[in-house]
Amino acid sequence: MSLRLEEVVIDCSEPSALARWWEVAIGWQVIDEDEDGAELAPAPGQTPTLMFVKVADQKRIKNRLHLDWVPDDQQAEVDRLIGLGATRVDVGQGEQSWVVLADPEGNEFCILAAR
User: Fold this and answer.
1) C or N: which end of the chain has fewer Cβ atoms within 10 Å?
2) Which domain holds residue 70?
3) Pfam families, alphabetically (predicted)?
């Protein structure tokens, strides 16, 4: 058996707006969108993609799955993302080498220290 990761699906209330936020945040491209969802890819034809799907319910608890990103300069990236509308989040991580942020709809993600 062989499996390949195709997409990561993220529930949200405003798929197009959230996909456009992530497009600016990570430099990927929106490759498909309609009223029910929007898909973001590193480049056309590349995977995995991020698929933002419209749901009626609001996020209430910590994500069970989140994305980790590694920048060249952690502090500069954290500052840039906060400037775009991300917020710092305390999910009980304590003092760590990574920074937990949330996108405009509250989905947590981490900015790791450069490796």
Assistant:
1) N
2) 64-115
3) Glyoxalase_6
